[in-house]
Automatic annotation (TrEMBL):
Keyword Cell wall biogenesis/degradation: no
Parts of the chain that traverse the membrane: 6-30, 51-69, 106-127, 133-155, 162-180, 192-213, 241-260, 280-303, 315-348, 374-402, 414-433
UniProt name for this protein: YhfT family protein
Keywords: Membrane, Transmembrane, Transmembrane helix
Source taxonomy: Bacteria, Pseudomonadati, Spirochaetota, Spirochaetia, Spirochaetales
């Protein structure tokens, strides 16, 4: 590994794992951009903790095993997804009461330390499974980030009519298409690649508020009420400014100590000692993720423990600068995170100028719930079919309709993830009894 194992690195990894699990448990911040929108329905009481955990597990566990650990081992530095996605799961596992907070924080800290010592061991253990289905689980959440930009168009349709919804949908698709094909450019040797999903989502939200402003009577004080559904979420994030700043500082410090890297490209460059190039790559990725992270934060009321990933950029440049570099990395990372959180309020004030209808919040939550339902169901079908092409689709669709007819149905959002995970278990059982080919 590129990092040294000593008292300092053990403490930093424990702090990183502990704070990430704590933030997820207390519904303050999660790293997975697909999981973050799920916290909105949870905080509104639309889904329970078990559903939240099942979804978080399905969306993140496959990425930890199939992407995070192998990439970390190959690059000799832990890619940030490995620890933060796992801590998303740990935090969601326990209730947000005092006992759950202590357990999740302690387990997250222990996981961070064990991860540093045992990455190869974990890979070897999962390799013992007769049929490896964990990589396929990442498919479950693959559609959420892609399809989530549809919810503003659906909210517009609920609020006005289908025609205006179709117009917003068409424009959202156009923005996504143009950004995907032409959103890569260079400014003063800095490569910038805009995230097409985040840009499309940002456009859709602005269009939704704009349409709401034009379809309601402008009255004194209506602007503040119109955007209350998002403004409340932003205020919730701002109340946790201090702990989020500390999280940003710890993430930056771990980067400076070569414990973590923000992405595969910067990981490789950092491992090779090409810190300037690694910082440039990290900056380009940061600029591309800003719309996605900030918009999902605004609509959910939950931020990311690494923010927009901007904290990694100066942290890379502080590598090999000794004690002063470590101290500087922590405080600069904390400052960047604080600025990001405060910028969310600036965005809210800008959008707050558009007065909307009082039912904007209800329509928005309904639209988000619909999109999450279909995204997770179809994602679960795709994952189950990848695991078992002969029976995967049948299993998830069957569970979906049987759940609807159950006396005590579970949340429809959980069917896709549960179906995919249970399908993986089933095929391993079938393999053991010689009824499923490897």
């Amino acid at each position: 590994m590129a990092f040294d194992i000593n008292v300092l690195t053990v403490l930093v990894m424990a702090a990183l794992g502990g704070i990430c699990a704590y933030l997820a448990n207390q519904n303050i911040a999660v790293f997975n951009d697909g999981t973050r929108p799920m916290y909105g329905p949870y905080l509104n009481g639309e889904i329970d903790r078990k559903t939240l955990f099942a979804t978080s597990f399905a969306l993140s566990f496959g990425l930890v095993i199939g992407f995070g650990l192998p990439t970390s081992i190959a690059g000799r530095i832990i890619i940030v997804h490995t620890i933060m996605l796992a801590c998303d799961i740990i935090g969601a596992l326990f209730k947000e009461d005092t006992k759950g907070m202590i357990l999740s924080t302690a387990i997250g800290a222990a996981f961070g330390v064990l991860l540093m010592f045992g990455m190869q061991t974990v890979i070897n253990l999962f390799a013992l499974m007769p049929i490896d289905f964990l990589g396929s689980l990442s498919t479950v959440g693959g559609l959420i980030v892609i399809l989530f930009c549809v919810f503003p168009a659906l909210a517009v349709a609920y609020q006005t009519n289908a025609l205006k919804g179709i117009i917003v949908l068409a424009l959202t698709m156009l923005v996504k298409h143009v950004t995907f094909h032409f959103g890569k450019f260079t400014i003063k040797d800095v490569n910038i690649a805009l995230n097409s999903d985040g840009t499309a989502l940002l456009f859709g939200i602005v269009a939704m508020v704009f349409v709401a402003a034009r379809t309601s009577k402008r009255t004194e004080g209506s602007a503040a009420a119109a955007f209350a559904v998002f403004e409340k979420n932003i205020d919730r994030i701002k109340k946790n400014l201090l702990i989020l700043a500390i999280s940003g500082g710890i993430v930056a410090l771990a980067t400076t100590l070569l414990l973590i890297a923000e992405g595969p490209a910067s990981l490789t460059l950092t491992a090779e000692g090409r810190y300037g190039e690694a910082a440039i790559v990290a900056l380009g990725r940061c600029l591309g993720f800003i719309p996605l992270v900030m918009t999902t934060a605004i609509i959910s009321g939950v931020y990311s423990p690494a923010g927009t990933k901007a904290v990694h950029v100066p942290a890379i440049l502080f590598i090999n600068m000794g004690i002063m570099g470590m101290v500087g990395s922590f405080f600069v990372g904390a400052l960047i995170m604080a600025i990001e959180v405060l910028l969310l309020g600036f965005i809210a004030k800008g959008l707050d100028r558009f007065p909307g209808m009082k039912e904007l919040g209800d329509n928005t939550r309904t639209a988000m719930s619909k999109i999450l339902d279909i995204s997770l169901l179809v994602g679960g079908m795709m994952a189950a079919n990848a695991i078992a092409p002969t029976i995967g689709y049948i299993w998830v669709v069957g569970l979906h309709f049987l759940n609807q007819n159950s006396k005590k149905p579970i949340s429809s959002m959980a069917i896709g993830p549960i179906g995919a995970i249970s399908m993986g278990i089933i095929v391993n059982i079938l393999y053991v009894i010689k009824l499923f080919p490897k």
